Amino acid sequence: MKLNIVCIPGDGIGPEIVAQAKKVLDKVTAVYGHEIVFTDILMGGASIDACGEPLTQEAIDTAKAADAVLMGSIGGNTTTSPWYKLPPEKRPEAGLLKIRKELGLFANLRPAYLFPELAAACPLAKGTSDKGFDLLIMRELTGGLYFGARHTEVIDGVRTAVDTLTYNENEIRRIAVKAFEAARKRKGKVTSVDKANVLDSSRLWRAVTAEVAADYPDVTLENMLVDNCAMQLVKDPAQFDVILTENMFGDILSDEASMITGSIGMLSSASLNETRFGLYEPSHGSAPDIAGMDIANPIATILSASMMLRYSFDLNKEADSIEEAVKAVLKEGYRTGDIYTEGTVKVGCNEMGSLISDRIK
Ligand code: NAD
């Protein structure tokens, strides 16, 4: 297969971690007999410095012509960087919002997996972390409260603010389909999270999700109220496979899920549109405090590349080989500084990428 990948190294540690993901992808494609072509584009601060704007039309067109986009991270120190003296629409983050919109990325996937070797960093009770967990949050990204009409007015002398939460059945159906498809590739269970005891939008969410479930008899569907889900995530995260939820609930739950893994440098993410196209990036930011020091953890970006193979190319064996290589390196005791504990071997960003690449089989 020929893979046409656009890379956005971005700012801060972005170029260092993307270089490691490219190294691993080069190895995977060589071992499995695929051809891969990388094209770099600028976004964020790097694009502001070179082109005067956070994302050019040319960069968008290049991304649209690719099969998938692999991103590092964008942005700088928000207190000291001159990028943050610019108006909001000219700042680095505006590039990210623009590319998500231009590419129609409505589904955000964030896995939260507890590597047994890193269980000590998990803030949950030992009995809970000992069980481990491996879940995926499927968050709707372009609808709901964050995109509904809003206004603030004074009514009878009282300041009053209104936000609206709107979903139509098509928006719910397309994200539900993504969740059931993902569950098929995992443990076959979808937990749809809503607030159907209160919200009309949640009752529609539940009804449409049940309709979609009928097309996936091999996948189990359960419904859970969002307040209960927030509790269950810290009480018994092992019960979850795919958590399907709307935009705001997903925003909050996905941060909670990433915290219980205890290691931000390990968490990948994907944003997908209706086709197989996706944008893949680590969940963390550009870490300007450690940029250029060869100490960043590249694993979140490398695992994002693995998600890319799985979701945009259906290359499951190849994706597995990356995940197995990451597990092997951790098992052998290699750690970057952020996950280092006494008795393990500290390595830099570049070496971690090479160790993982060397273990691709
Ligand atoms: P951050 O995630 O960049 O860093 C938080 C802390 O975690 C820092 O101490 C950093 O050194 C550490 N860290 C993060 N990733 C690491 C890694 N791979 N290896 C080792 N340590 C790592 O969050 P922040 O400091 O709040 O934000 C910095 C910049 O990143 C800001 O400009 C912010 O807007 C941007 N940001 C971008 C994205 C994105 O591109 N999608 C996401 C979040 C933040």
Key terms for this structure?
alpha/beta; binds nicotinamide-adenine-dinucleotide; globular; 2 domains; ten-stranded mixed beta sheet; Isopropylmalate Dehydrogenase; two-stranded antiparallel sheet; 361 residues
Report on this model:
The model has no long low-confidence stretch (mean pLDDT 96). The chain has a ten-stranded mixed β-sheet, sandwiched between helices. The chain has a two-stranded antiparallel sheet with strand order 6-7. The protein has two domains: 1-113 and 267-361, Isopropylmalate Dehydrogenase (3-Layer(aba) Sandwich); 123-260, Isopropylmalate Dehydrogenase. It is an alpha/beta fold. It is globular, with a radius of gyration of 21 Å. 40% of the residues lie in helices and 21% in strands. The protein contains twelve helices and 14 strands. α6 (169-184) crosses α7 and α11 (316-331) packs across α12 (349-358). α7 links the parallel β8 and β9. It binds nicotinamide-adenine-dinucleotide (NAD). Nicotinamide-adenine-dinucleotide (NAD) binds at residues 13, 73-76, 78, 93, 96, 264-265, 281, 284-290, 296-297, 300, 338.
Number of helices: 12
Number of domains: 2
Percent helix: 40-55%
Q: Superfamily at the CATH H level of the largest domain?
A: Isopropylmalate Dehydrogenase
Measured on Cα atoms, how large is the radius of gyration? 21 Å
Kindly report the average pLDDT value: 96
Biggest sheet descriptor: 10 strands, mixed
- Helix/strand class: alpha/beta
Q: What is the CATH class of the largest domain?
A: Alpha Beta
| Oligomeric assembly | single chain
As for the CATH topology of the largest domain, it is: Isopropylmalate Dehydrogenase
Question: How many strand elements?
Answer: 14
Strand content: 15-25%
Q: Which molecules other than protein and nucleic acid are bound?
A: nicotinamide-adenine-dinucleotide
Helix-strand string: EHEHHEHEHEEEHEHEHEHEEHHEEH
CATH architecture of the largest domain: 3-Layer(aba) Sandwich
Uncertain segments: none
Spatial gap, N to C terminus? 18 Å
Strand order of the largest sheet: 2-1-3-12-11-4-5-10-8-9
Shape: globular
